[in-house]
DNA sequence: TCCAAACCCTTGGATGTCCTAGTATATTGC
DNA sequence: GCAATATACTAGGACATCCAAGGGTTTGGA
């Protein structure tokens, strides 16, 4: 994965699409492919920064979410909904975070079906440190200009709403 | 993962970042998180369309790449470079595509280290059908306006170049 | 009241991605 | 020409994601 390619493979794909008579969808194809690749790059950067903390992005997201919850605790299904991932992914993340003593499971006081996830003191501390690292080394150096950031937030926000992520 | 949330969780995160004094990186954080989520939505749509063909996105990408190669064959390392994934991911995809008789491995004529991946007739046919389906059901209904598509291609293209994907 | 339907979490299985070797083949440099 | 280095692919392992299913708990309508 090392050396840069001489030419943009996505631009090449777009040209191939046009050459085959699919010019009407070549540009959206390129945009979507670019989003996929950009996500891959960003995820790699994030994971690199989190590795020293013994965290992955999935686990960090859960820690961060809990750290913003007033009580420091959330039901599993709530976390699943807010993180927009399958419940089994939350189970997986909690298993590992619990082994690392960063979160703890506790029964819901009134609903026997529900399990609460609670941040431990170490979990809260680690979340703070990891967030500071991400802010400094990823979000603070995104490479996107302020106007591009605003545009991305707006365009992708509309896309996500249309996709049924939220109603607001 | 079903019901839409009442409010945009990424906008909430952005507000949390600002409230904690990280306003300088709150917007890039939101943009990056939105890219991650958008990729997840798009990937799910793509996989849904490809499922009837017995393909995943990773396998489809490889088929599509081969279908655009003049000779219909590419060395594994070339495919790895163009798809921007780890060589082991290509090995994995080729293993499964080969089992499905959509591609075949063959030795490189002059370099004993290299393995060529070649499309079979069925592979070429399936690639065509899958591409038509994706064009109709995903790329043709991306939900992005033409101006947004152009903007995404440009902004993410710059990002990818700066990240070292290509030099062009 | 009570049983069926709905809901919550977990387990097990399939995929994909990456990393770290390990094996085989080419290239390079002395 | 031969040893050292580089390159190509693969095997094994760690993680994450999703789906399908199963077992326990609640809720709601007959």
Structure description:
Chain A is mainly alpha-helical. Chain A has two domains: 8-48; 54-137, Orthogonal Bundle (Arc Repressor Mutant, subunit A), CATH 1.10.10. Chain A is built from seven helices and three strands. Chain A has helices spanning 9-19, 23-50, 57-68, 76-83, 87-99, 121-137, 146-162; strands at residues 73-75, 103-107, 115-119. In chain A, strands 1-3-2 form a three-stranded antiparallel beta sheet. In chain A, α1 packs antiparallel against α2, α3 crosses α6 (121-137) and α4 (76-83) crosses α5 (87-99). Chain A is elongated, with a radius of gyration of 20 Å. Chain A starts with 8 loop residues before the first helix and ends in a 6-residue tail after the last helix. The interface between A and B is large, with 71 and 71 residues. The structure holds a DNA duplex (30 and 30 nucleotides).
Question: Can you give me a brief rundown of this structure?
Answer:
The first copy, chain A, has helices at 9-19, 23-50, 57-68, 76-83, 87-99, 121-137, 146-162, and strands at residues 73-75, 103-107, 115-119. Chain A has 168 residues and is mainly alpha-helical.
CATH superfamily of the largest domain in chain A: Winged helix-like DNA-binding domain superfamily/Winged helix DNA-binding domain
Query: In which order are the strands of the major sheet of chain A placed?
Result: 1-3-2
Instruction: Just give the CATH class of the largest domain in chain A.
Output: Mainly Alpha
| Overall 3D shape of chain A | elongated
β-strand percent of chain A reads 5-15%
- Could you tell me the mean pLDDT of chain A? 96
- Residue ranges of chain A: pLDDT <50 for 5 or more in a row? none
Radius of gyration of chain A: 20 Å
What is the SS-derived class of chain A? mainly alpha
Task: Estimate nothing, just give the exact number of structural domains of chain A.
Answer: 2
Architecture per CATH nomenclature, i.e. the level-2 architecture of the largest domain in chain A: Orthogonal Bundle
Largest beta-sheet characterization of chain A:
3 strands, antiparallel
Fraction of residues in H or I helices of chain A: 55-70%
The number of strands of chain A is 3
């Amino acid at each position: 994965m090392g050396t840069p390619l001489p030419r943009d493979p996505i631009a090449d794909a777009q040209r191939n699409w046009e050459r085959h008579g699919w010019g009407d969808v070549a540009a959206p194809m390129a945009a979507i492919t670019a989003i996929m690749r950009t996500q891959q790059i960003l995820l790699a950067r994030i994971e690199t920064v989190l590795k020293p903390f013994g965290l992955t992005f999935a686990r960090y997201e859960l820690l961060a979410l809990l750290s913003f919850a007033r009580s420091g605790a959330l039901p599993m299904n709530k976390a699943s909904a807010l993180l927009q991932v399958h419940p089994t992914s939350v189970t997986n993340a909690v298993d590992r975070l619990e082994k690392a003593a960063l979160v703890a499971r506790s029964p819901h006081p009134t609903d026997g079906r529900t399990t609460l996830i609670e941040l431990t003191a170490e979990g809260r501390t680690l979340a703070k440190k990891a967030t500071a690292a991400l802010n400094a080394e990823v979000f603070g150096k995104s490479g996107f200009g302020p106007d591009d950031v605003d545009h991305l937030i707006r365009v992708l926000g509309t896309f996500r709403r249309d996709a049924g992520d939220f109603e607001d």
